Amino acid sequence: MSSLKGRIADQLTQARSRTAVLADAVDDDDLVTQHSPLMSPLVWDLAHVGNQEELWLVRDVGGREPVRIDIDHLYDAFKHPRKDRPALPLLGPAEARTYVASVRDKVLDVLDRVQLEGRPLVADGFAFGMIVQHEQQHDETMLATHQLRAGEPVLDAPPPPPARVPVAGEVIVPGGWFTMGTSTEPWALDNERPAHEVEVPAFAIDAAPVTNGQYEVFIAEGGYDEPRWWSAEGWAHRLSAGLVAPMHWVRDGDGWAYTRFGRTAPVARDEPVVHVCFHEARAYAAWAGRRLPTEAEWEKAARFDPATGRSRRFPWGDEEPDPAHANLGQRHLSPAPVGAYPAGASPLGVHQLIGDVWEWVDADFTGYPGFVAFPYQEYSEVFFGPEYKVLRGGSFGTDQAACRGTFRNWDYPIRRQIFAGFRCARDLRPGEV
Ligand code: AVJ
Ligand code: FE
């Protein structure tokens, strides 16, 4: 087996172990329960992961007979909205487990025989990489479902590392052109492509994500009561949804507590704030006299190396993330405090861009110049437009297979179930360098 095939097999296995941890943590009744109208029952994600794998790797790449053509419609995310999925005749927990295992058996056989070159779908193992990322993305979704589930804690992980260096204030990123997106990263998805030059005027960006402690000041100073900090759309949502604090926060004496995966504790002031929507992020930034970064600013802060003028894969360079670089992969069940990842900082000193919390940026989700849908329009293109805002950098629940400096996530600006926070930016003042 080539080393690429070996890496693919390892990554498929890793994704499946994580899926199993998330599914096996609860009993069968819980697996078929819908914990929130925003989410599918966990058993849907489980079989959907197998169905996508069957469609792309067994049928398309492998040219093999379907395993279960009769269930395709149940697991087509466009046929049934999440809220309707519990009423479908879904595979039960045992059937779903048997199904995904039999698909995987065939896929490993396909992998053994396939030539990973020629056809763009298989060149560099792309289709396999896409399916690894797909399973890991659904694992993050399943983790978000766990966060929405009531009851005793069922997931365990060691706490994140402590702060190792003080990180505060902002970093000035010099103006000029930089390369955004990629044409060379083999498993980059269509919306990250192609690489293109963007001119970004000099700007200042926070050296770290906004923390719970900072966010508490915004709340205490009436940030949720002042329409002037909010966009019209954001204020309307703030009123109709009755927002008063990040999702999952509850009053605790003078302060706040936060229930995370079934465990309640006072909010940690030095951790990045998480479970805020785009509108809350934007309101905080306005209150702080700042703004959210544009998508190009975020990516320039994360990838631009002033010494070479080149865009790197990650803030720390081109190497794959290791546990000292970033809080990824559900190794911990929370963001780490600011300053916990000095080895992951960018050359200009911007910290924790990768991992910890997804970061809302001030951008609609659209295609880059020269965008071509690949291999299907329903991954990205059908979501392009003003309804979705972009998130960057991945969270503690994002696996490194589905996270890099160019990776783009998106959601509605009102959504808070994802592990999302933000950092602020601003234009430079005249004469400031
Ligand atoms: C990129 C996270 C928005 O979960 O809706 C999963 C990823 N696409 N199955 C999503 C995805 C198809 C997608 N996000
Ligand atoms: Fe999916």
If you had to describe this structure to a student in words, what would you say it looks like?
With 433 residues, the protein is an alpha+beta fold. It is 30% helix and 14% strand. The protein contains nine helices and 14 strands. Strands 12-11-10-13 form a four-stranded mixed sheet. The protein has a three-stranded antiparallel sheet with strand order 1-4-14, with helices on one face. A hairpin with a 2-residue loop joins strand 5 and strand 6. Helix 1 runs parallel beside helix 5, helix 3 runs parallel beside helix 4 and helix 7 crosses helix 8. The termini are far apart. The structure holds N,N,N-trimethyl-histidine and fe (iii) ion. The site of fe (iii) ion has 5 residues, from helix 3 and helix 5. N,N,N-trimethyl-histidine binds next to helix 5 and strand 12.
